[in-house]
Amino acid sequence: MSEQLTVTLQEFRERIKQIKGYEEAIALLHWDMRTGAPRKGIASRSEAVGMLSAEAFKLSTSERMGELLEKLEGPASSGELSRIDQKLVEETRKEYDRNQKIPPAMYQEYVVLTSQAESYWEEAKDKGDYAGFEPYLDKIIDFNNRFIDLWGPKATRYDTLLDMYEPDMTTAELDRIFGGLRTKLVPLAAAIADSPHQPDRSFLGQTYSIEAQKQFSLFILQEMGYDFEAGRLDESVHPFATGLNPGDVRITTRYLEDDVTSALFGTIHEGGHALYEQNIMKELLYTTLCTGTSMGIHESQSRFWENVIGRSKPFWERYFADLQKHFPGQLDTDVDSFYRAINVVQPSLIRIEADELTYNLHIIIRYEIEKMIFNEGAKAADLPEIWNLKYKEYLGITPPNNKDGVLQDVHWSGGAFGYFPSYSLGNMYAAQFTNTLENEMPDLWDKVGKGDLLPVKAWLSDKIYKYGRLETPSEIVKRVTGKPLDPSYLVSYLETKYKEIYKL
Amino acid sequence: MSEQLTVTLQEFRERIKQIKGYEEAIALLHWDMRTGAPRKGIASRSEAVGMLSAEAFKLSTSERMGELLEKLEGPASSGELSRIDQKLVEETRKEYDRNQKIPPAMYQEYVVLTSQAESYWEEAKDKGDYAGFEPYLDKIIDFNNRFIDLWGPKATRYDTLLDMYEPDMTTAELDRIFGGLRTKLVPLAAAIADSPHQPDRSFLGQTYSIEAQKQFSLFILQEMGYDFEAGRLDESVHPFATGLNPGDVRITTRYLEDDVTSALFGTIHEGGHALYEQNIMKELLYTTLCTGTSMGIHESQSRFWENVIGRSKPFWERYFADLQKHFPGQLDTDVDSFYRAINVVQPSLIRIEADELTYNLHIIIRYEIEKMIFNEGAKAADLPEIWNLKYKEYLGITPPNNKDGVLQDVHWSGGAFGYFPSYSLGNMYAAQFTNTLENEMPDLWDKVGKGDLLPVKAWLSDKIYKYGRLETPSEIVKRVTGKPLDPSYLVSYLETKYKEIYKL
Description:
The structure is a homodimer.
Chain A: H1 3-35, H2 42-60, H3 63-77, H4 83-99, H5 104-127, H6 130-151, H7 157-165, H8 171-194, H9 210-224, E1 233-235, E2 241-245, E3 248-253, H10 262-278, H11 295-309, H12 313-326, H13 335-341, H14 359-376, H15 383-395, H16 421-440, H17 444-449, H18 454-463, H19 473-481, H20 488-501
Parallel strand pairs in A: 1-3
Antiparallel strand pairs in A: 2-3
Helix pairs in contact in A: 1-2, 1-3, 2-5, 3-4, 5-6, 6-7, 8-14, 8-20, 9-10, 10-11, 11-16, 12-13, 14-15, 16-20
């Protein structure tokens, strides 16, 4: 490498490191606002977040960054750069072209708005007061529409937003995939509803110590290989995981006294996200590649751990006795009944508590509403009604209030339109990865049945986690499973699982 | 105001707001590192802190800032600007002239170093392992020596550092003040030691529930008027208060099972700092004047609340019954005995647990050591021995280990050389303010005896807190008490108090 190229690369890497530094600070400020920052400091904190975001944004779109990219793109394409640097140049170029179209002041205003809106959403959700949140939501929608105009609409306006979370995903493709899913899952759900073998859940209707729930959540995280020297578990209204750097990946959960499994599966879910971020290779430290490659792949990991592992029979053959010990006299049943009880398929109101099958209907509802907002001009004021009608149509139930309806998710308050499909994509990726894992680790379920989860974590680290954003979602799926994304793995996984449980 | 001046002022204020935004983010990152950030993320977090500090530093020394200051200094001195803007221009100029002498890369390196060193200090203190901390301390001393060279030594090299925490304070002045204090306090301490009326502390030697200590600490903070919607109480190895903005002023404390008053007085102390920061006038928001004016005035508030109020008899006449209720059967004595027990004068090892009288000797020791480091070239390796010799000389006791000796304080790990004298200055300011408060509020002690503390907070807010950095320490002391700083108030306060307790 020429001396000049070395110097250019060094300057480029310094700038990337600085952007990453801003991202780490912003992530901590967000974590803090959601885990206990005092109410009266929010306005000032939001201004600080806005300022830091604007600075990172300016760096990523600066004239100098453009010059550096131009100097580095030749060497990158001729193979003179390392694989990491080459990818870094590509991704930074993509970001540069995208961000350059947004005026920095507009971006900063948007960040301050969404940062405040998240707190207002929390308040509105608490009180079930949609009207208090509506003006913020309208402003956020309006901003996103202006972003779409600046970036340029793709096949549809909503496609422009989708691409942010799952590169190159389109509404055409999602319509096809979700259509196919629906065709297979609706008859399966109907057969389940008609089955005479409905699991008994009545033994779960007790009051469970929050302290014991916390202890068991911590225990399971430890079993999964979550590194507590590189993370911590806190509480927040809406559970989340945030990777500040691989040495600091935090999880939050939410404990419910009347539900012994809600916080537990929430914790395992966020733990899956966290394992991904904790196990990214050291070589990516201080670069913008040091994070999960897409929301879909991220969700594949959270949902793999939550559902494929956490709701499997072998898992509970190992851990049910431990759970019983945490709640003496309160889980007086056998493993099989417990396993069936935590896998009940039943239409419900809250996405994050839905079963693995109907979960996808919750996602399809949000996907369709987001399409309506951006492709058909639906306004914030319209959403409660649309929401409730769709829940009636797809799940046969109507939310009794907005808290359990349109206000339940944090995503829109943060402007994350186009994110929701990632959850179902995650389910599909997870099923496909599981198929490969079962082939490559024939004693997988024996291991899980013995609580030997670390080899699973090691396999995923080796195949997926360590790469961070070094590969695209489709490259990862192709390399790991030998095939592109194929929804039939999810269908087949769900059919096998529920045919056994419901004796279909 | 001309349109041009308005535009210039607006740009200046925007830059100040940005610097303040960086300071808020950095303060949160520090708070987080000291209250529970995972160990493995520290390296990356320190890099982020270093980067943010460097950016704030660059802003404060930028060419553009220099131009803006030049444009604004004329209007400032001719009275065209508001009082706040005028002061902001003055203070920013001082910072600009000072910071411009330090190369930004050197400053960033220093910030990363001190940010890491604080964590290594915690570890070293835990293990009593001075050798593990020594190389960091040497590096920090070396940096400070280079700063002194760049800033230019004042009357002595150490004077240059002193000025940072207490503007215009000198070693000549401190030698005089501390000399005077010693002359008065040493005979008082001797008389106390010889008194036949030694308070009984034996009833305090029990094990006290940490949860109950926490509850009582929270209760007293509430009584003082600490606003929990604008703050929170956490735990850390070394208690501290940090004002992110007036709506978010956090306190930490440290609970000891075998000492019922350590965390309590620590909390009241930090609570005093917090009241200062919570009650700064809204007009100073988003400016660098929105903080305490000096460490000395800050300490006057923490030590006023901790000692003048918190260790007074009227305070315990009101609150002792409440304390007893928190520890049933564990405080079986009367108020007077308790009051005497918490005011025992006795040489001890740990500064933050020292009585009001010998506390000043702890400060004098640190002050003399810091003078030796910067004026006589003492090295980190020399400090444990110097420390122990001085404790023998001034307090008649020798630390059994470095944990209870030279490693006890966080300050040096953060590079805060020149800070310690502020504590004794704080005691002196506090005694002088108290004298005025007693004159202006003749029923002060009746109020305290009834737990009517909010008028005290209101008086302090009105006289001191609300001004933030709008006035200098000497301006405040002069305005509030009508006189410059006069150490005789402290001497007289201590003499009156201890003559009564020890029946001298």
